[in-house]
Amino acid sequence: MKMHKIVQLIIFLISLLLIAGAMLFHHEPSADSDLNINTILLSIGCSILAVVIINFFEYHITRPEVDTLKYISDWKLVSIFKTRQEMNDVTNKLLNKAEALDIAALGCKGLLNYQGDVIKQRLTKGMKIRFLIPTRNSPFIQQREIDEDAAKDEIKNNINNLVNWSQQTIKELNLNEEQIQIKEYSSLPIQSIMIIDKNLFTGPFMIKKLSQLTMAYQYKKGGEGYSYYKSYFNEIWNNDEISSKVEV
To answer: What is the structure's pLDDT at 26?
Structure first.
């Protein structure tokens, strides 16, 4: 039995004892005093009982909300976005000061088109990037193109463009090999994951929905959500049986 239930039970029993005492103990007030012990015991016992009853119902009515808040706190869930387009308003601001960027995605076409210059600027300041992409010739990519109603080879071409962008950026900015790394994995496309320093964003790939029109979640470092997806990303990245380095 949980501690708060034990405390409630003890208080409840005390109130019953006080009420029983008031009913069993007969005391007439003296001529010098109007004090009636029965009335006092009954009043105290009924007051405590009322508090216990109110507390009991209040606890069970609000418990789901309390549990929900606890889960949100434990996982440090910051936001839920209806689309990744809404999420981009937050990630774009974070990129301006980013020091590390990990991305598991299907080509990052929108990111490179709209934030390519910002990313290059951060790379000149020492930022490091890890791209985790599906194998370009995988049948899973072909299936994902069908699921998204994309043109044939559209996702494959987006991934190729990401690799080409990385190669050109390394040469253009004279970066070291550690600043932009790419690995490809051979399994089904994993969830979209974007880690910008102490913030992590993730969301599913849905059927008949473009990636940018799919919901996403934001977690803060220090919570279960960030730790869970960061570990997942690293497990795939560091497993040579699943992922392999793409030369850039």
So the answer is: 61
